[in-house]
Amino acid sequence: MKILKPQPFYFDSGSSAVLMLHSFSGTPNDMRLLGRFLQRNNYSVYAPMFAGHGTSEPLDILEQGSPEVWWQQTQEAIQFLKDQKKTKVYVFGLSLGAIFATKALEDLSRIDAGGVFGSPLHNNNFSQIKQAFLTYAKKVYSIQQDLTEFEIDSKIRMINSKIDGKLTEIQKSSVMVTENLAEIKRPYFIGQGTSDKLVDPDAAKAVAEDVKTSQLHLYDAGHVLTINRAHDQVQSDVLNFLENN
């Protein structure tokens, strides 16, 4: 079975553009359904690939990626859309991507509005994210037929030795962004699944209190709102948000 490698995508469809930033163990594939929906509604959509992601080696995320690198990529993606002469630029992020989407709204004047899905902001416990990453890594390795059980165990031990440090880096970035939430003056969409197991759903309410321009949307669903059972309602709500901002 040939496994297609995830790729960034750019749908050039209108003068307004939406930048979409994926999650810690995700890829632009998680944003494609929403991206196609917005493309059909005359929005251009760009979903870059964060460094270390989209490979058959989960260790790449821990060894090649960092909050500094991912933030630099976010800024480069925004500049790309500006270079495409887009009149409006919006930025949305899922989970890890939510940190950098929010930072862009705090720090960069060239963003018109944006928002988050399953945001880790105001979350103090990243243990569930660690477990989810380990589960993801085991799944990736298990479908690689050339790996022995011993090799898989060795790779998982390597991940265990590195992931705490990486999550600490991410959490520090999250805290810094959280501390500046009150600086956001532009429209801010918050999408949160009420049965999210990776982040505390109640944290979204704390973020909404900090950001006076926010719109909080709660969904009877889990973490990855862009592709789970809430995705149809999420698409409708995001489009309404864009049309009014």
From TrEMBL:
Q: Which GO terms describe its molecular function?
A: carboxylic ester hydrolase activity
Domain of life according to the entry = Bacteria
Sites marked Important for substrate specificity: I143
For this record, the Gene Ontology CC terms, alphabetical, are: membrane
Q: InterPro entries, from UniProt?
A: AB_hydrolase_fold, AB_hydrolase_sf, Esterase_lipase, Hydrolase_4
Which is an annotated Pfam family here? Hydrolase_4
Q: Where is the signal peptide?
A: none
Q: Where is the Serine aminopeptidase S33 domain?
A: 17-221
In the UniProt entry, which residues are flagged as the active site? S95 (nucleophile), D196 (charge relay system), H223 (charge relay system)
Question: What name has this protein been given in UniProt?
Answer: Carboxylesterase
What organism is recorded for this protein? Companilactobacillus nuruki
